Amino acid sequence: MDCCPRCAAHTPITSPRDMAADPPRWFSTIEAALGAKPVGRSPLSGGSIARVDRIELADGRHVVVKTGASGLALEGEMLGFLAEHSYLPVPRVFLAHDDILVIEWLPGSTHLDPSSEAHAAELLAALHECTSENFGFHRDTVIGGLPQPNPETRAWIPFFRDHRLLYMARDCHAAGSLSAAMLARLERLAAKLDDLLEEPDRPSLVHGDMWSGNILSEGGRITGFLDPAIYYAHAEIELAFSTLFGTFGEAFFERYNGRRPIRPGFFEVRKDIYNLWHLLTHVRLFGPSYLGGVERVLARHGV
Fold first, then answer.
1. 3-state DSSP assignment of residue 137
2. Pairing of β 146-148 and β 204-206
3. How far apart are CA 272 and CA 278, in angstroms?
4. How many CB atoms lie within 10 A of CB 12?
5. Are 30 and 55 in contact (CB under 8 A)?
6. How do residues 39-68 score in pLDDT, each as one tens digit?
7. What's the N-to-C CA distance of the chain in angstroms?
8. Cα 173 from Cα 180, distance rounded (Å)
9. How far apart are CA 249 and CA 213, in angstroms?
């Protein structure tokens, strides 16, 4: 797999059009919050979870508006938390309600070259230095619109086993997208995690949804990270997801390893186990086409 269909990139797919004749109902909400009337709208690519538009305001500013999904206030809260607790570049939040999110429009595209990958490595290494006493978070969050439980837990391996791997496997089974036989195999692998994973020195703050559609760059520099699914974790789970759909390559990992050395065994063993969580979220969201990846990891570990 080399792509993920889920989140919206901030790339217009049409030119702005005048909305005076048929303004969406939320234009008045934006005008009241930002003090300027919306005069144009350009749909942005992606956005299977919510509708995403770039809005032109009468004063010349541009903002991004998400609508058509629930839980958008939580996305705004997560962006605000990253802005307050890290140096990760994220869009400023102007308005965050459950059914509408208005954020800063950031320049850039989702194409990453070696220079922007190296810059991303510096930014994520710094993010992963933001720590907490416990794994999890002070509240549950979401990933791709799915609930993401975050009970504060002292040890990483039990957290990953119970609130990531087994939680999503059982949710997929309950939704009819995972067979009882494969669930049993995942449960057998979960029983072996103490021998396969490592406890980190401390929990790290992670963005949580690290694929290329959530990263903007321009001129070899990262201009923004979008659509977070934050919590405190082993930083390796973030690195693992960045390999699943080819987000980052050699330039990223060389620079990241120079800032935060990656322990032996990550690429050989732990990466694929962590990616079971992300594969299962895709099974839950998009169906059985992602089960082949789950099968390969299980077979590799003899379960």
1. coil
2. unpaired
3. 10
4. 16
5. yes
6. 999 988 655 577 899 999 999 999 999 998
7. 23
8. 7
9. 15
- Burial (CB < 10 A; 0-12, 13-18, 19+), residue 59, is exposed
The one-character DSSP state at 70 is S
Q: Which pLDDT belongs to residue 144?
A: 87
Q: Tell me the two tokens of residue 225.
A: 């990270």
Name the active-site residue from 53, 209, 227, 272.
209
The C-alpha atoms of residue 6 and residue 165 are separated, in whole angstroms, by 20
Residue 257: partners with Cβ closer than 8 Å, 6 or more residues away = none
Per the listing, tokens 């890290």 go with 86
* pLDDT value of position 145: 87
Q: CA-to-CA distance for 281 and 261, rounded, in angstroms?
A: 28
Measured in degrees and rounded to the nearest 5, phi and psi for residue 302 equal 65, 30
Total-model pTM: 0.91
Q: Give strand pairing partners of 103.
A: 64, 93
- CA 134 to CA 231: how far, in whole Å? 10
The per-residue pLDDT for 21 is 44
What tens digit of pLDDT does each residue of 70-120 get?
Answer: 789 999 999 999 999 999 999 999 999 998 999 999 999 999 999 999 999
Q: Which amino acid is at 89?
A: P
Tokens of 242: 């960045």
d(CA 262, CA 264): 7
Phi/psi for 219 (5° steps) reads 60, 35
Length of the chain: 303
> What is the average per-residue pLDDT within 208-235?
96
**Rounded-to-integer distance, Cα 175 and Cα 296, Å:** 22
How far apart, in whole angstroms, are the C-alpha atoms of residue 277 and residue 196? 15
Query: Is position 162 annotated as part of the catalytic site?
Result: no
221 confidence band (pLDDT: 50, 70, 90): very high
Residue-wise burial string across 61-75, b where 16 or more C-beta atoms lie within 10 A, e elsewhere:
ebbbbbbebebbbbb
Pairing of strands 38-43, 51-57: antiparallel
Torsion sign across C-alpha atoms 241, 286, 187, 228: positive
